[in-house]
Design brief:
heterotrimer, A mainly alpha (247), B mainly alpha (277), C alpha/beta (309), B: 277 residues, 1% strand, elongated, C: 309 residues, alpha/beta, Alpha-Beta Plaits, 2 domains, six-stranded mixed β-sheet, four-stranded antiparallel β-sheet
Amino acid sequence: MRVFRGYAMSILLYSVGMPVAYLFAMGVGLATLVDANQAAAFGGVSYLAFIAPALLVSAAVMTSSGEFSYPVMAGFKWRRTYYGPHASPLVPQQIAVGHIMAVTLRLLFQSAAYLGIMALFGASPSPWGWVSIPVATLSGLAFGLPLMAYSASLKQDKGQFALVQRFIVTPLFLFSGTFFPLDTLPLAVRWIGWISPVWHGTELGRVFSYGYDEDPLLTIGHVVFLLACAGVGWTLTQRCFVRRMGT
Amino acid sequence: MSVMAEGHEATEAARARKFGSLYSRNASAVVSRGLMATRSSNWLVMASGFLEPVLFLVSMGVGLGSIVGPVQGPSGQEISYAAYIAPALLAVSAMNGAIYDSTWNVFFKMNFAKLYQGMLYTSLGPLDVAMGEIFLALLRGLLYATGFTAVMGMMGLLTTPWALLMMPASVLIAFGFASFGMGVTSFMKTFQQMDWVNFFLLPMFLFSATFYPLSVYPEPIQWLVQAMPLWHGVELLRQISVGSFGPATVVHIGYYLVMILVGILLTTGRLRALFLK
Amino acid sequence: MKPDVVIAAHKLTKKYGDLAAVDGISFEVSAGESFGLLGPNGAGKSTTMKMIGGVSQRTSGQLSIMGLDPESHGPEVRAHLGVVPQQDNLDEELKVRENLLVYGRYFGLPLSYLRPKADELLEFAQLTEKAKSRVDDLSGGMKRRLTIARSLINEPRILLLDEPTTGLDPQARHILWDRLFRLKEQGVTLILTTHYMDEAEQLCDRLIVVDKGRIMAEGSPSSLIREHSTREVLELRFGSERNTRIGAELQGIGERLETLPDRVLIYADDGEAALEQVTARGLHPLTSLVRRSSLEDVFLRLTGRSLVD
């Protein structure tokens, strides 16, 4: 979509600058603290290798939380880009699909760039590492599509997106086994990880990027969970778009 | 009825005050407007600003802390990882809050809500508006800092009464960033330019010895980090949190005093550019 | 300078880059006068208003409001002003009555004065029932009235009104005019910009016609009409194809002739007589109308363009 071209520069900075900053700060800086104390906690891999797939997935989810929030509501309300194409014989579903495809492309591109940078850091030892790209993209959609449905149902911004960011995205980022294995957290907050696309995506990413030893059933469970989230979000989004634009 | 009561005392008195060319000594009107507007705004949004550093503290401090174990505190003694990062998170949240209020918020009210346009058609001067907005930002920062310090207390991370000084100290940090941020905003014309603020803040957040000691970096990078304001804030609060002071404490405080001074000079110098087109 | 002059501008100029939005205009306004700036969009009226309010810095020239330079004495000058900007900039985070109270606080006025004053102004603006409403829920006309009420909170000596009725329906406009007229009766100096000639004719004692940042003419509405136009105007429509061609055949009738794409205007002191001359030449317009000359005609005469494009 042409609308995206204006943001090319900042997308580039986000997809290259952020990974470098995070991988360096956490994977290299923080790692000196962590590896010195207890390397065994991460299943024998370096801390860098442990958090890299998590950062990759988190970045995808954050991007998607941005793209499926303000821009969707703004599309209806402020810029009316959605009403524009709507005047031509496009059905609402197609317009929703158009936005989703544009964001999916961005997620794929961004994840590929991220993985490339991970490789430069030596953070993706397994030859199957490339699978992390679709995994991260899927995680982004698993979180983003339900959010899109919510955004499409909003008529006015009263700070809801700031709330989504702070009450949902940030906790998911922090409590999804991103920086440490989920079971080091007390049971009382571990459930956040279980329902979090970030955790499911991260665990999947770990299986592929460094051969994390996991029960195959659980691995399948992750995929099913992510697909289910995305599917439900998709259906809800379609409904909201149709209702909002009244076909 | 008469709209123009001849020679009304109150309006005459208000006109007989002493005025500056950019200042009418009435920043408090801007502050009371801000407080009134807060009442009708979404309080959840306000509360959520306090929540963010708490989430970081719980996640990193408890989760990661159980793996990292105790680390070396500012005076060489061993402290828990949570106690190590808590003051840093407070400094980061003071920075984020102040920057948000003095850049995005000012930019939006200036260019979109046209709020300042209305204010500046009264006997308020640009300096009243700037001071009022900065004061509001600091007030909010103080509230958040108080809440965060209370959470630290509940988690057993406060071990000395000195730690209570973190609250005023984080206001000092916020003041530094707010006065500077407003000056910077005067150079901004579009939202895209505002994005650059984030590109500056994120690395500072990650690299300012927030989550691990500075010593992991090679020396040149250490110098670079030490030149950045956030590092001084992190170190200052960390020292206060364990009540261990030294000559470095004076340097950190001095850094912020200079930053506030430069920020105020910059902002006042740019007031006409910021508010009067 | 005469003693009762409250606003004096001398060669006032404002440039944005190379473009001169206001290009050396000079005028004086006396206390209690109702002074208008009439001109099309982009003529430099709003910029002039902003400079008077001290929120825009002039490029050159002199400006004095009640003897003070608004640039160096902004807050003090504005303590005497009430401003109604072109676009309502009400505080949407506050309720209707709060808007008045808070605005009064900006002038350093005490709440003991502001509370009764706010109620009085709400009544003046016919918004008493909306006191506790959100600004968002008001209609366009109500917002405009609230903005005007707000501008009166400090009992200003000078009221600046930038396009006060643009975008309002006719009924709302008349309510506003009535309110402004009462203020004028109470001795408030009104400075207003408008591109509506009926508004200028209703409200202004004296006005300047501005175009492209320059003053084209100055005077009272009636003297301007007398000076730059005839008593009456005959408007003829021959259908869009023929207006231009027939223009030539009408030469000599009346004092002056303007051919516009949609009609032909004949300026004459006696419109009916002119119409008789037209029919005497065997020309039969589709419609014809005799009316009094207005400021619109003055503007057309001075600039060759109409006010509202």
